[in-house]
Amino acid sequence: MKNRIEEIRRLRGIRQEDFAKAMGVSRQTISSLETGRYNPSIFLAYRIARFFDLTIEEVFLFEESEEGK
Amino acid sequence: MNNTRRMIISALEILIGAALLVAARVAHLDSAWLGMGGALVAVGLVQLVLGLRYRADADYREKTDTEATDERNLFIRSRAWVWAGTGFVIIGGVLTVVLMILGKHELSTVPGIAVCVLMILYWLSYYYLTRKY
Asked: Would you call B101 helix, strand, or coil by DSSP?
């Protein structure tokens, strides 16, 4: 699933390490999320959206064609 | 598992390993017991050192805790078990057939039974998990 994590994080000047710490995950997890190699659980997606003060839909770009991949 | 419990287990491993080493020397046991004792002592010592570091080093503690609960790590661990299980069934199945073709019928039962046990465990787990979720 595509997402805007990297774009929003860079816009706000937050380092991957600091963002990972705030989310309670490893830096590698943030990196995998940003490159789209890993899709987060609904809990992590919610925490990320809340951290940026946005909705899940504004951060994660759901496409029906990707469902089940 | 919390760190204190892990350190107690490490201390027990060292004690059991040391006991095995002494017993193997005194009672002239098979060298396998000597090796097992040595391995237990080594594993226990490494875990004990890591446990002490966990207690003393805040950065290491935070990193270890994050890695243990990180959802991507949990996902990867779970996938690795799936791959390992699938690989075991395939290798075990092929080995069983090859050994039977080679006429080693008795030996072929070992991987065959191992695969059967794994499949039974899988179905029991599947049954339990369908009830749970």
From this structure: helix
Is the CB of B65 inside 8 Å of chain A's CB atoms?
A: no
Residues of chain A in contact with residue B71, where contact means CB-CB under 8 angstroms, are 25, 29, 40-41, 43-44
Q: Are residues B75 and B63 in the same domain?
A: no
Note whether A65 contacts B: Cβ–Cβ < 8 A: no
Residues B21 and B31 occupy one common structural domain: yes
Q: How many domains does chain A have?
A: 1
* ipTM score: 0.86
Number of domain units in chain B: 2
Residues B82 and B44 in one domain: no
Q: List the Cα angle A11/A24/A26 in 5-degree steps.
A: 80
Tell me, yes or no, if B72 comes closer than 8 A to chain A by beta carbon.
yes
Based on the fold, state whether residues B89 and B112 are members of the same structural domain.
Answer: yes
Q: Which two tokens stand for residue A28?
A: 């590698």
Kindly report whether the global pTM for this prediction surpasses the value 0.80: no
Q: For residue B75, which residues of chain A lie inside 8 Å, CB to CB?
A: 38
CA B89, CA B71: separation in Å to the nearest integer?
27
Residue A18 lies in a domain: yes
Q: Which tokens belong to B37? A: 């004792």
Q: Is there a single domain that holds both residue B64 and residue B8?
A: yes
pLDDT in tens, chain B (133 residues): 678 888 899 999 999 999 999 988 888 888 888 899 999 999 999 999 999 999 999 989 988 888 889 999 999 999 999 999 999 999 999 999 999 999 999 999 999 999 999 999 999 999 999 999 9
Nearest chain B alpha carbon to A25: B70
Q: Would an 8 Å CB–CB cutoff place B71 in contact with chain A? A: yes
